[in-house]
Every structure is written in structure tokens, then in C-alpha cells.
Amino acid sequence: MHIVVLGSGVVGVATAWSLQRDGHAVTVIDRAEEPAAFTSFANAGLVAPGHAYAWSSPGAPRMLLRSLWRGDQALRFRPNLDPALWRWTWKFLRQCTAERAALNTARKARLCLYSQSLLHEVVAASGVTYDARNGGLLYLYRRPESFTGALERMRLLTDQGIALESLTAGRTVALEPALAPLRDSLAGAIFAPGDESGDARLFTLGLAKACEAGGAVFRFGETVQGFRLDGGAVQAVVTDKGEVAADAFVLALGVYSPQIARQLGARLPIYPVKGYSVTLPVAGRNRAPSLGGVDEDNLVAYARFGERLRITATAEFAGYGTGHRPADFSRMLAVARDLFPQGGDYRQPSYWAGLRPMTPEGTPLLGRGRHANLYFNTGHGHMGWTMACGTAGLTADLIAGRKPAIPLDGLLLQ
Per DSSP, what are the bridge partners of residue 75? Predict the structure, then answer.
């Protein structure tokens, strides 16, 4: 079949790869000028089944409420007049029970583990390089009470087969010497030995080249505007440069999926959640971390990509804007300096802000809507890099009529 994939972020390109491996002719369409130019451009880079907890948790409503008058909250709610924000927020709050959080976490963990296994298969088959670092990730806790809570919560993930270890401050520093200045400030850490990191943009760019070498066609600078329909099927996608006909279509447009899907009678519960990142040159400094991780009490993530250090933070519910000022990064940079005073050249920050396509549950949307030949692969939230190869493989399974390798409960479009 000829299949058109809409979107060339990490999810769209991974989907193109999986479909091509199944023998399909693939065309990818994106409004940007190259792959991974939007959400996948400068994200945290953590491939982290060990951090697959649902954001919609019993503590989330209090954090969102405090964010109305405090600027130091990891989750920030910025009210506006957009009805979609209020509909999404109501659905999110309904997921913030202990029972729903546990269920959503289990579903995320299962998908993340499966996706990581497929990532390794894709890398082996394609030869793509992306500053990957294996050896685990560290989740750091400064306050004893938060560390105790984390230890109690670990079972949500270990019950799904994810390996997690509790570490004292001393063992944490022994594993990551760059954290030595913080030894007396750490209550402990959780170590996920199977987690890893890597530059999602480099991965996507490399995989897109591998797809092109296999015959895939990428149409950049082309904006999707709608579809030409015939009864219960999509005949062609309509762009600002004409029509592209195909046998099947995959919608992987991230935060812009709801607007396009609405033309097909589908209401996607996806809303953009803004995140911020800073990339620093390591510049020969010998105190840069070897392992990535998260400062959990500040919700600041970090990962080293070769001679670069990436720092990410914040989840801001503030609409579709991606603008930013240096002041927006001051808190996360202060946390990074505290973690790694000599970890990078703080005089040369490269700033970025991007939008995560979040569902209230934190799980992506797969499967078909009312049109038999249009499939959804969108709504991956803050774990798109971790989940991308998995949902790509599952989408290829659904198109081929194969039984998916993992259960799809909670993942299929309703």
C-alpha cells in the first residue's frame, strides 16, 4: 500500500520506518523544513520507563492551584478563554484519583518498556546514531519525605517489570561522581538501570535519512489543510500545495492533531503543555554528569549528549505559544548550577521552548476513528521519545491486521 504519514517528529518518522519495514510505500508530509523541528527539537532526551508515572495524580490539582500565585511550581496553569483548555482541564482533574493514576501509570509503563525494546531493534537495523547513553538514569530526592513517598510509589512501576533500586546519598555519588557537591543535600535516589538517554532530534534526523534511502518520500514546507473524503474513507490529504492520494493515512501531528481531526468528526482530548529546555556546551569540563536523571523535588531533568548538557523543566498549560525570555529559564538554571556547578559553560546557554501534546491520562491515542483508512498516532505528552518506536510498531500492526504485541486497553481512540 501507499501510506501517507502526517508529521515528521520522532513519532511520525518512527511510524514511517515501521511501515516501510512492512513493505509499504511511504510519504511523509510536514509544514517544517526538516524532521524534528518542533516538539522533538530539544526535549529532555530521557528514554525513561522508570519515570512513567501519570501526571494526573492526587497531588496534581493542588500544584496547579498553587501555580496561580506561585511561579516555582513544576505544573503551571495559565488560565485563558480557550474553551478547549477548560474541557481538557476538567477531564484531567477527573483522572487525578489514586485508582486512575495507578491504572494510567501501568498502561504507560507497559507501553514504555515495549517501545524501548523496539527502539533497540530500530537502532540495530538502521545504524542511526544519536549520542545515546546507556547505564541507567537517576531520580534524585532532596527531602526525606519526598524520598519516602517515592519508595512507596515504586511498586506502581516494579509491578510492571521495571527494575528500580533505592540508593543512599553515598551510593548515588559513587554511581555519579559529578553529584559529589550535593552529597549532604540528598535524601537518596531511585536508580533505574534499564533507562537511558539520547538526542531525539539526532535520532529522528538519522532515521529519516534511513527511510529516504529505502524509498520514502518526505514533503517538507507543506501544511496539511484537510482531506478529500469519499463515504467512509479518506481519498487524499489536502495541503497548501495540492492533494496527495494514498491507500491509508496516519495522523501524527502532535498538538495540531485536534484541529485536523475535527474535520473528520473526531474530538481528540489533546492540549499543548509547554516545556522549556537549555542546552549548554560541556566545553571540556570534567564535572559534567555521565548519567542523565531528574531532580525530583525541583522537577528539573538533565542529560548529557556528547559534549552538550541538556536541562529541561516546567509543564505550563498556557495555549499554543512557544515564545520565551531568558528570565523563564532562571530557576532551572539555578537548579542545574546547584547540581553541577562545573557541568557546563553557563555563559553560553541555548534556549528553547516546545509544546507537548498531552492527553488527560498521559497515554497516546491510537487506532481508527470513523474512517476506515485513517489511523491516529498522537498525544504522547512528555514521553514521546520514550513511546515513539512502540506506538509506531503498534500502528503498523493495526494497519497490517496483526495482533498487537501488547494490550491496547486505554490507548485506542474512543
Answer: 315
